[in-house]
Amino acid sequence: MSVISTIRTSCRDCYKCIRHCPVKAIRISSGHAEVVDERCVKDGRCVLVCPQKAKKVRSDLEEARALLGKGGRVVASIAPSFVTAFPEATPGQVVQGLKMLGFSEVRETAEGAEWVAKEHALLLAEGRTNVISSSCPAVNFLITRYFPKCIEHLAPVVSPMVAHGRLLKKEDPHTRVVFIGPCIAKKAEAEEEEVRGDVDVVLTFEELREWFQEAHLDLATLPEAPFSRRRVRWARAFPVEGGLLQSASFEVHLLSRDVVTITGIDRCKEFLERFSPERYKFRIIEMMSCEGGCIDGPMLSSSLSPYERRERVLLYTEESLEPEESLVCVDPPSFRRAFVPAPVPSPEVPEEELRKILALTGKFTPQDELNCGACGYNTCREKARAVYQGMAEAEMCIPFMRMRAESFSSFLMTVTPNGIVLVDEDLRIVEMNPALRRMLGLAGKLVIGKRIDEFLDPSPFVEVLRTKKATTCEVTYPQYHNLFVRLSVFFLEKSRLLMGIFVDLTKEKEQETMMATIREKTIEKAQQVIANQMRVAQEIASLLGETTAETKVLLNKLMRILRGETLEE
């Protein structure tokens, strides 16, 4: 699993992570920002700047708990910046808290930092120049992936975390080491082939604080406990800028021109872009990806200001200073390593392809290229290259998409035969399209800013404003020549506006009325015809009935005469 991942449901197309990523290791896929692991330097800025908390750092708490559950010697190696991460507690209370979690021993990573400083000093003693410190894994990733030509200047020395892991496992090969610090990049460093197995689990200070909370441990109320062993002098100052130089006993003062300390990933990147052995002649270049050093690590949230953090670390270093002979270690392990280049592919983009991509967002000339940075890239052409490489989407151009949306919505508002009005929560008109103005006879009149009740019955709008539910009704406006409409009112949540859509049914209503009149007249005529037909039928029937009766009488008389009967008058 990647060290940094994206919670897709929380990612909202803001592109802030791209703007702050020093190497643009973010891929936009279907509108969501994903960290590309092989491009990422793990500096953690995307995690810090994401306003929706959509970037997630992998938690290794369960793995640490599993180690403790297996028993055996499990040692917590805690970075010296811990004194700033838990300002509410003393160092001894933090140690006690770790022991209560189940760790066999609690040791200071600064033990390893002492040896790392010595290794850097040995490199200089060998006559090497322009040595770039290798204690910050984010800087190491930056160099191996984006500035592989500088690897020859990168000190072939492990970080304090790895050095301490090797020391602890030299003491006892069965030892399991859990490193705890302010850094995200340490999680990725521990998985590198060159150092894999030297440290078993990497936790951040944030994970440790979560662990303390789950265990219901209030550090400020705990008794103090000492570290299991103390073999440290100046290396507790490693988290502040210049800490390596002090630990390696370099003589550094204001006018020192052969050593330099660079903190902040952007400044490190800028230096490496300009770096050349012919141009620079330093003895050592200390690089740290976080501003001011590890005391501003991405997983170190503290109530202390950066200056207070620095003061706290330096005070802790001075108060805990030990004699140099305490650093003696019989048969120490190797603290060297190799760095392998892993350059990120950056294919050249044909100019013709760039122009095609730029044209997708309406950029046909250099004047069309705003270079506003809203998409996260510094220039439109840089973003176009990212689109070509599959790292970005053309639709990320916010000014273009806004212009297109406004143009489309304006076009719809203008050409639609239906009336549209936008009203704010005070029932004041924000916009009214030409169709509604024609319906109400308001063409050319000032309506924007006026209340809707000056022109229309506001009842439907008031009801939707109250319930936030859409409604549809049929309304007649006698004051506008008996205008008859079907009115639909909606509440637009994001803009907090009410939208009314008026469908003119006046002609349909007139036709319906006319048809009803025709139907009534037709029925009336039909009824008259039926009545006349009935009257005629009755008259005919009556006449037929009288004739038949007379005939019957005459025939009867004839029959009686034929039979010889006497007829009475």
Automatic annotation (TrEMBL):
Residues 2-30, 31-60 form the 4Fe-4S ferredoxin-type domain. Residues 405-459 form the PAS domain. Residues 352-414 form the 4Fe-4S domain. Gene3D superfamilies: 3.30.70.20, Electron transport complex subunit B, putative Fe-S cluster, Fe-only Hydrogenase (Larger Subunit), Chain L, domain 3, PAS domain. CDD domains: PAS (cd00130). GO terms for molecular function: 4 iron, 4 sulfur cluster binding; metal ion binding. It holds the Pfam family Fer4_10. The keyword Glycosyltransferase does not apply. Keywords: 4Fe-4S, Iron, Iron-sulfur, Metal-binding. PANTHER family: NITRATE, FORMATE, IRON DEHYDROGENASE (PTHR11615). This is PAS domain-containing protein.
